[in-house]
Amino acid sequence: MTRPRHLIVRNIKRADHTAIDELARMGTATVHEALGRLGSTGPHFRPIQFGASIAGSAITVSCHPGDNLMIHAAIELCQAGDVLVVTNTAPSTHGMFGDLMASSLMARGVRGLVIDAGVRDTGDLRRMGFFVWSQHVSVEGTVKSAPGSVNVPVVLGRQIVNPGDIVCADDDGVIIVGRELAAEAVRLSQARRDFETATRIKLSSGQLGLDIFELRAKLTELGVEYVDQLDD
Amino acid sequence: MTRPRHLIVRNIKRADHTAIDELARMGTATVHEALGRLGSTGPHFRPIQFGASIAGSAITVSCHPGDNLMIHAAIELCQAGDVLVVTNTAPSTHGMFGDLMASSLMARGVRGLVIDAGVRDTGDLRRMGFFVWSQHVSVEGTVKSAPGSVNVPVVLGRQIVNPGDIVCADDDGVIIVGRELAAEAVRLSQARRDFETATRIKLSSGQLGLDIFELRAKLTELGVEYVDQLDD
Amino acid sequence: MTRPRHLIVRNIKRADHTAIDELARMGTATVHEALGRLGSTGPHFRPIQFGASIAGSAITVSCHPGDNLMIHAAIELCQAGDVLVVTNTAPSTHGMFGDLMASSLMARGVRGLVIDAGVRDTGDLRRMGFFVWSQHVSVEGTVKSAPGSVNVPVVLGRQIVNPGDIVCADDDGVIIVGRELAAEAVRLSQARRDFETATRIKLSSGQLGLDIFELRAKLTELGVEYVDQLDD
Amino acid sequence: MTRPRHLIVRNIKRADHTAIDELARMGTATVHEALGRLGSTGPHFRPIQFGASIAGSAITVSCHPGDNLMIHAAIELCQAGDVLVVTNTAPSTHGMFGDLMASSLMARGVRGLVIDAGVRDTGDLRRMGFFVWSQHVSVEGTVKSAPGSVNVPVVLGRQIVNPGDIVCADDDGVIIVGRELAAEAVRLSQARRDFETATRIKLSSGQLGLDIFELRAKLTELGVEYVDQLDD
Amino acid sequence: MTRPRHLIVRNIKRADHTAIDELARMGTATVHEALGRLGSTGPHFRPIQFGASIAGSAITVSCHPGDNLMIHAAIELCQAGDVLVVTNTAPSTHGMFGDLMASSLMARGVRGLVIDAGVRDTGDLRRMGFFVWSQHVSVEGTVKSAPGSVNVPVVLGRQIVNPGDIVCADDDGVIIVGRELAAEAVRLSQARRDFETATRIKLSSGQLGLDIFELRAKLTELGVEYVDQLDD
Amino acid sequence: MTRPRHLIVRNIKRADHTAIDELARMGTATVHEALGRLGSTGPHFRPIQFGASIAGSAITVSCHPGDNLMIHAAIELCQAGDVLVVTNTAPSTHGMFGDLMASSLMARGVRGLVIDAGVRDTGDLRRMGFFVWSQHVSVEGTVKSAPGSVNVPVVLGRQIVNPGDIVCADDDGVIIVGRELAAEAVRLSQARRDFETATRIKLSSGQLGLDIFELRAKLTELGVEYVDQLDD
Fold first, then answer.
1. Is A66 an interface residue toward D (CB < 8 Å)?
2. Is A84 helix (H, G, I), strand (E, B) or coil?
3. F-chain residues within 8 Å CB-CB of D50?
4. Which chain F residue has the Cα nearest residue B231?
5. Which of B125, C169, D56, F36 is most exposed, with minimal Cβ within 10 Å?
6. For chain B, what is the HEC assignment?
């Protein structure tokens, strides 16, 4: 392909469902840490609800700002266990998604939406139990008149999302795990979780991170000095 | 009038209460869409509570930033069913409104506040059940020393608000409906709501927006191509 | 001392616990107002929970952005009734604090955290009942490799925080009360609270701030004019 | 009129050219101050050039974000001495205006553009000497497919702009002077300018504002205390 | 590869130099428009100088925020005609690049820098004639202690940048053209430029875009009404 | 002192003029780096001019937002070689300073202004050669009615500024050097400058930072791998 085209890609590869569900249980902070602090989309995608923790396969959408035509095209390609990832070719605060589209996605078993724009009908969405992470909440509606693409690589915050990549989202935000990293991510995250559990027990009993992680020597090496009191 | 003056206007025209209450039931997204996507004040006015949905007649206030003298002047002119709309002549994050003023407004039957600044005592306001949409939450208090106006046309985000215009606010934000549009807005919003209800039923049963809105032809016309798979 | 150094100061002076607890009961807006509208850190520190109202002695930390080594060093110096105040030498959105550190702080009786960066594990923190005020929520984790200081004067938003100063935080944000002002702050806040209670009763019964605060004369003096109606 | 409509209004009233040109010479800060600190659109409209100072009659445009169809419609209605004012129904960073449209406007004697969005071809615009104040600079181009209005009242930042109102713009930003205030604005601005000139001479010779404006008494009255030295 | 690794890739494919130089002459707005409005990194990358227009092959860098170790590693791989593209794994305002690194890059014939962070020594950089587009200007310096990657795909604003992709930058911002699109981009941009030149001549002579682009019919079709005057 | 008071402190200690002038010659990036990367006020204070590089003793001012009374009080206390540092008790975009005050300050030999708010008359200020670093440019004027303080410790961005501290400002922003650090800052900055000069010569001749700073070993130690090519 040498010319820029607008494409809707029908078939994508997805990661193993067992791995995806296990990542949902881990939470974004643990997975992110386990992968060497990779995958964060940044602090600007915020949940419209508290307490949701999901993971799913990315169906990616690239829209013209303020135009939701391509979201309609994407819905047909969604399967149970997917997460819809909507991006725009320029910044937008439009409420590009609402309760009607959520009805459609819930009928297909989609687990949630991550959108680099606004969302609306947030009261209804919370009542319906449809989970959303967005940059804005806004009543500003959209048109259906400009072309775009579905299931092509897109940029979501600071990450590239390929169709079929794993989207993990909870109260802390949204991270992306490459599809081919699924098994490794589970393995590393489980190890991380076990380490965290063990550490939590120690810390709750009063042991200090300074001692557990052997940081006292590091402080000395970096030239940090202990003094009894500031003289002012 | 040829010189800029500071005015407090005692009497304003209000829209019919039945129409206002009907718009509150519709929600901002439905009304905004019904009116051809007009009236949004933008994504920056956020509720301090979840689940409130109100509409009321605007009592408008124009203040000096960080000075709430004119809010005091406005309260006297409020009636049951009104919504107080507070703006500033320059950007401000001050907490210009708190629980004391809310006590006063609740005693008069005012339905809520929209303020282009900060608000404080938000814990108390939630406990009292007084609804607020603001740009900021801030403890920073105010003085009472600069003149301003009440019930003159003001700018709220991206909208002109004339005194007596209808303010609709819910979890999605704040929209303004011109007083003279009240009946038409109700009629258009009811039609929009009925359309949404019918569409929701179809979508929940698995029909696609692509088919319901006949968007497949549009995609073709715009040159969007379906492919089975991305070759990489 | 003439060279910039990285210091960990072991001993600090704290204010009287009775005074601190009384300030927690007052709430930030009342204390801020009582002190002549001083002490606000500004509108950018937001709670991750609703309804918490705390006060405590500041343990101050100055970190390199995205590096939590010095937080570990600070924990050892925390006592029951303290509040941890974490700042950075440059802006950062990193989630520099999570549930592991919170376990450690809760084991020591620390009342909460104020951090000029991001926080993560927010779902867990809410479940644990550990209170946090931050600028961001973010999964982005940190390293432990750069030096900094503990219990030196730091800047938190618009305020200088000296170790041992009183940090008050609730739904409205975070304010700082100088340690040496503790008793005076309590006295002034109690007076302010009594005044607010009396005023609230009057306002709820329908009296107007215009009359209670004698603002009608002020409006006239400032040249604000009453008119019956806008002619358009 | 009771239904929201999209209108292009052919004829508008303009203020007297002599008054407009005099306001351009005064500069925005002087006019703003002379009018009692009214009319500022806020700090977000920035010039793409240094040193321009213009005033003109507003031709107002309301667009759909990212769609410049209505700007084309507006150009036909522009006359020599006008300033084009472009707003959007939702926030946009699109580069909605470039050198082609500037060629068209320069052929008609238009003095500049103020746009609540982005602008592009900024290098060319500077070379052509066409003056622009915008919120953003962006290459992101637009479509021509959504309806809007020309010469209806619009909101520009914090101001209502009626068609024919006077737009003043220079290095400090953009202010709006109501058409009916033109003569009064000139009179007040000239007085302000004379006052500023006289004051500048005094200040340059070393006299203090404290004495010229008799502020020493005010400081005392407000309880500000002079001390010789801070004891620390 | 299944584990996340930190890589420095020595060899990349570059586009044809003739095509790259031709795109530099076109300017970002023309190329962006010619490609169907694709490729914009968004409005947040601003030049530190006026009047530069460059294009070059991307050498991509992924750093830890506030750490410039990987920029040092990247310099060795730069050739004449390249543009350095620096990104971070989390948001940063650090001044991660200054005149020393610019000396190094100029010695290798590098055409400029695009950085998703801050830059410093901007006065020196302007004097040296080294071109930079950045998100921030900041004195805040960096450490050299965290790993990252060179010449892997990165995210720059709203775009994926693959090593060897073409970076075009001028006063309007930064766009990315896929390496494989080089020839097509030149062809489309030349056509667009010729169209713009022809249009500019017509518009400067007073013809209207309304007529040239046949927009009058579109206005009618969209229901936009012409009226002679607003009745108020 | 136990009660919050508004103070104007007449006498402050200043650093040695020779040291201050030497720091101005160094530039902010060199001084900041020499002091171990301390002192930055952050990326939000921007110059209104290009090419100025100053240093001076801080005269500090704390104002109510939108009120410049205390700036007038501060001017009397300024001496040749000082830099005026203006802060607010809450965020403000007001143009709190203009050409009249600059006339007064230039008559006293003041070297510039750093202001945590807006500035206006920027065209005039550039023509007069008075240097300003601000957060905003804005025509929005101020009143003269609220008390504040002069020459007390203030917060400027991320730094505490004590009266008499050294303010260094150039195209890269503003840094603060503690008065008592003056001699040490000069010594460290000169060493840093000599190191930079030597490094610049090496880099310009084609040597690499990788070799000069011995970073190749570090890359290996951190697990960064060199590969010849990305296989895709």
1. yes
2. strand
3. 123, 126
4. F232
5. F36
6. CCCCCCEEECCCCCCCHHHHHHHHHHCHHHHHHHCCCCCECCCCCEECCCCCCEEEEEEEEEECCCECHHHHHHHCCCCCCEEEEEEECCCECCECCCHHHHHHHHHCCCCEEEEEEEECCHHHHHHHCCCEEEEEECCCCCECCCCCEECCCEEECCEEECCCCEEEEECCEEEEECHHHHHHHHHHHHHHHHHHHHHHHHHHCCCCHHHHCCCHHHHHHCCCEEECCCCC
Closest approach of A71 to chain D, Cα-based (Å):
19
According to the model, what pLDDT value does residue B2 have?
47
Q: Is E43 in contact with D118 (CB distance < 8 Å)?
A: yes
Tell me what the pLDDT averaged over chain B comes to.
Answer: 95
CA dihedral sign, ordered E131, E135, E140, E144: negative
- Compute the distance between CA of residue F209 and CA of residue F83 in angstroms, rounded to an integer: 37
pLDDT at F230: 83
Contact B48, B137 (CB under 8 A): yes
Q: What is the C-alpha separation between B53 and B29, in angstroms, rounded?
A: 11
Chain B residues whose CB is inside 8 A of the D43 CB are 91
Cα–Cα distance, E163 to E9 (Å, whole number): 9
Binned at pLDDT 50, 70 and 90, residue D95 comes out as very high
- For B109-149, write each residue's pLDDT tens digit: 999 999 999 999 999 999 999 999 999 999 998 989 899 99
Other CB atoms within 10 A of residue E193 CB: 17
Of the CA atoms within 13 Å of residue C77, those in its CB half-sphere come to: 30
Give the nearest partner residue to F227 out of E9, E100, E140, using CB atoms: E9
pLDDT digits (tens, 9 = 90+) for C126-171: 999 999 999 999 999 898 989 999 999 999 999 999 999 999 999 9
F189 neighbors F39 (Cβ within 8 angstroms): no
pLDDT in tens, F68-92: 999 999 999 999 999 999 999 999 9
Which one of C133, C171, C221 would you mutate to disrupt binding with B, by most B Cβ within 10 Å of its Cβ? Answer: C171
Q: Rounded to whole angstroms, what are the CA distances from E171 to A185, D85, D134, F201?
A: 42, 23, 14, 31
Q: Is residue D23 predicted with pLDDT exceeding 80?
A: yes
One-letter identity of residue B113: L
- Would you tell me which residues 82-111 of chain C have a C-beta closer than 8 angstroms to some C-beta of chain E? 89-94
F29 has a chain D CB within 8 A of its CB: no
Q: Which of residues 138-167 of C touch A (CB under 8 A)?
A: 138-141, 144-149, 151-152, 163
Please judge whether D90 and B155 are an interchain contact, meaning their C-beta atoms are less than 8 angstroms apart. Answer: no
Q: How far apart are CA C174 and CA C167, in angstroms?
A: 7
